[in-house]
Amino acid sequence: MAGARQGLRRLRALLRKEFLLLLRDPRMRFFVVVPPLIQLVIFGYAATFDVRFAEVGVVDAADTAASRALLAAVAATGHYRLQRYAAPDDAEAAMAAGRVRAVLRLQPDFAVRPVIQLLVDGSDSNSAQVILGQLKQALKRASAPVPGPVTLVERNWFNPNLDDRWYFIPGIMANVVLIATLILTAMSVVRERELGTLERLLVTPLGRFEFVVGKLLPVAAIGLFDVLLITIIAIGWFQVPFRGSLAMLLFASSLYLLSSLGIGLLISSYAGTQQQAMLLAFFVIMPLVILSGFAFPIANMPRPVQWLTWLDPLRYYLVVVRDLFLKGSDPSAHGFELLMMLLLGAASMLLSVRRVR
To answer: Which residues cross the membrane (predicted)?
Structure first.
């Protein structure tokens, strides 16, 4: 009994010491309370597979009272914004560019033969299945003014079988590169600080810019190697098609790495230990992944949450990577995404370099 009491006393003293060490540091108190609350609020609104709103292209070659009433009933559901196009090629080009997520085509003889062709952007397989099911239900409910039964002809573009691997593997590549490079950058600088070598380096003739470049270039090389490795595995093992340009993929990845490396360096400037750097890294990585559109479409998120996604470089890289794999888009189609990655990368690099003392 005496030994058990002494063991409990030692355990109580050890627990008291650990809790004091944990709660004495203001940054640790911050990690215990603030990140879970922020993540709960953001993820509670952002994490949803429901498609509450979608842009739908319409080619109404019939243009009759019945066809107009049918389309008006679909728009009245509040889930779709119909954009009219004069020619099928215009609507299909809009879907390839990502401006619409589905296309409804009504032939000139719709009054005699009520057949509707429904094209869905299959590059986002989850959303495509949801939009396809919801549009079919909306069209069936709205087909009252149409004489005779309405026939729906379905077709999935870019991913005919709606294979989830074709959608997720390019996104996994983007997430792996983000996690690996961000954590490596954050941990490498903090490790130098903990070992005491950072101060020695900064009092040498080595300039601040040279120090940053020397730290970031090896990690950037690792990131590009991961991009090539995962691309080879995706094509060779998982049979994911790659229809774009490899040079474009490497160029977009380089712009993307500017942001991930800059964020990692910025984290290292605030963290005093490797433990704090790891906690900060995961606190940053989780919102970046959730708000990027990797699993949950950005269009389904509330408007304030959508505004936050504008600061997420992963959002723009995912668009470029998935389009290069599944659509083979022309580089000129991604000028906005490339520009945003460049701006976010330059901003994160500038802030991190200024923070390096």
So the answer is: 30-48, 166-190, 216-240, 246-267, 279-299, 333-353
Burial class (CB in 10 A: 0-12, 13-18, 19+), 205: exposed
What's the predicted TM-score (pTM) here?
0.77
CA 187, chain centre distance (Å): 24
Nearest 5 degrees, angle CA 354-CA 351-CA 348?
145
Do the Cβ atoms of 179 and 222 come closer than 8 Å? no
Q: What is the DSSP string of 23-63?
A: HHSHHHHHHHHHHHHHHHHHHHHH-------EEEEEEESS-
Closest listed residue to residue 161, CA positions, set 122, 135, 191, 202: 122
Distances (CA, A) of 31 to 21, 47, 273, 283: 14, 22, 14, 8
The string of pLDDT tens digits covering residues 117-134 is 888 888 877 778 778 877
- Cross-strand bridge partners of residue 103: 57, 119
Cβ-contact 55, 99 below 8 angstroms: yes
Chain segment 211-250, per-residue pLDDT in tens: 777 778 888 888 898 899 989 988 988 888 998 899 999 9
User: Domains of the chain, with CATH numbers?
Assistant: 54-157 (3.40.1710.10), 164-355 (no CATH)
Distance CA 53, CA 134 (A): 11
d(CA 273, CA 46): 31
**β-bridge mates for residue 57, sequence order:** 83, 103
